[in-house]
Each structure stands twice: as C-alpha cells, then as structure tokens.
Amino acid sequence: MSLLQLEGTPKTPKVEFIDAPMSLALSGRSIPENSIEFYKPLMDWVDAHLSDSSSNPIEVSIRLEYFNTSSSKCLMDFLKRIEKSPVNATILWYYEEEDEDMLEAGEDYDAIIDIPFRLIATSA
User: Fold this and answer.
1) Residue 98 CB burial class (10 angstroms; 0-12, 13-18, ≥19)
2) 89, 123 contact by CB (below 8 A)
3) What is the model's pLDDT at position 54?
4) How many domains does the chain have?
C-alpha cells in the first residue's frame, strides 16, 4: 500500500491519498506561499498511482473551506490529471450550504472537468 499523508496547516490542506483501496482526499484551507511547490508531490503521486486502469471506482473528496487563485490553478491541474487517467473516478465536492463561492467553484470545475461531480452541501 502506498500512502501520501500531509497534516493540514493554517495555509495548506490536509492530504490523504491511499492506493488500496484507492482514495484521494483534500480538506482545509489552501493558501500556501508557493502552490506549485506544495502541489507537486500530489501531482507526482497521482501520476504514479493512477496510470494503471482499474475497474474499482475511486472517490476524490475535496472539502476545502477556502483556496486562493494559485491553488485554484493547481486544483485544476490535479483534476485534469485524474480526468486523463484510465481510472473510474467521482469527485465529491463538499461546501458549507451558506458558502455560495465554494458551491460556484465546484460548479465551475464540474463544467470543465469530464469526471462525474457530486456537489454536497454540509452544515457549518
């Protein structure tokens, strides 16, 4: 089993990527000083672990309460890598029911990325 796990900080999200069974989760805030540097190990992990076709569906859970512009670009690149892989993925986009910005962000990614999205409202 291969695992990528990073504890969340006030500026970076908690990361839990597991390959058996496959599960990818991001939660918290994403406002790192250097988004590209922070997200590079995540992209490398995705490239290494999603290259083989698998009939097992995987869920990508995104529970971000806030992310900045540079993180949004990295999230797009992250989702594009999953989209291009042969895996059967579903994106679970969680947002607080009062947070219209996060709902709209999920809707925007859903419109661009060709992976099934589930927009899931949560209470604060």
Assistant:
1) exposed
2) no
3) 63
4) 1
d(CA 68, CA 50): 26
Task: Say which CATH number the domain at 34 has.
Answer: 3.30.750.24
pLDDT digit string, tens, across residues 35-88? 999 999 999 999 888 876 566 788 999 999 999 999 999 999 999 999 998 888
Cα separation, 58 vs 45, in Å, equals 15
DSSP line for 33-99: S-HHHHHHHHHHHHHHHSSS--SS-EEEEEEEEEE-HHHHHHHHHHHHHHHHSSS-EEEEEEEETT-
Burial code of 2-30, b = ≥16 C-beta within 10 A, e = fewer? Answer: eebeeeeeeebbebbbbbeebebbbbbbb
Domain containing residue 44: 3-122
DSSP secondary structure letter of residue 124: -
Q: What is the pLDDT of residues 4-30, one digit of tens each?
A: 999 999 999 999 999 877 889 999 999
